[in-house]
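Hey, why these numbers?
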Amino acid sequence: MPEFSYAQADAIGSGDCSTDSVPASAQQKGSVDITNIRKCFANGVVALEDVSLKISSGSFFTLLGPSGCGKTTLLRMIGGFEPIVDGDITISGRSIVGIPAHERQVNTVFQSYALFPHMTVRENIEFGLKMRRIPRAERHRRVLEMIDSMQIGEHAERKPNQLSGGQKQRVAALRRIEWVGGRMLWSSCVPNRS
């Protein structure tokens, strides 16, 4: 697993959170740059106003703020679920304005986790690799590495209804990482208590 740095923002638009210690070439690949984003809904509500952020590759970045301040709207814009009308968002130095969601190297982990209830933890994580026709031995190796990285090996043969909320969240994260290769958007990533 790569070493991660943590950057936290008090609210949307708090500024540049890139790290100077990461080489420029590493920052570019996988980085997310948000420049002067504005989002105004049809009813006149301004959800985002002049938001600019730099998120370095390999970092965890947290947006914290009160309900309704635009956190999820910004994630939806990065993911391609809301159009970018004012401003620019780049991933790995490439603008994603106008690029459909399915062509972006980004995935979203929804609050419900969307795990297949009839599959084990291992099968849920392996699903994307199987759909991409990765050879069985390679799938097995990668899934075991991922399970070990999240310390859920003892749960590998359990079904989702046998897991805690935090365990379900880790399985959902692993499945998404394997599908898109590392960039994820999480909305309300605190484990569900329901």
Observations:
- Confidence is low (pLDDT under 50) at residues 1-24, 190-194.
